[in-house]
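Bumping with the actual sequence this time:
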Amino acid sequence: MAQENKSKLHIKTGDRVMVISGKDKGKIGNVKIAMPKEGKVVVEGANMITKAVRSNPMAGIQGGLIKFEAAMNSSKVMLYCPKCEKPTRIRQEVLEEGKKTRVCKKCGEQLDV
């Protein structure tokens, strides 16, 4: 059976996260890109890869080795709470206006401000 695509992530673009597994375990960075259909995220400064690129004068690309962040599975990162300064799980709460918000399970701080 083919695995269904994930359509929801617990992380959004711009969130501060901590990598919890892999070669970059313990690194903290902001999410550059969130890809909900693939279930992946790109984190600033984490999962760096080196790629050899040929020069292309027409496109103005200089050749050589370039380093950039590759996508990683969203299960490898946890949301980082600014108040407790720890990685945390989140829960959804509904405000009086009917708007949904994400809340830190450890300290109760709202993460969507």
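The tokens above came from a reply further down the thread. The mean pLDDT is 88.
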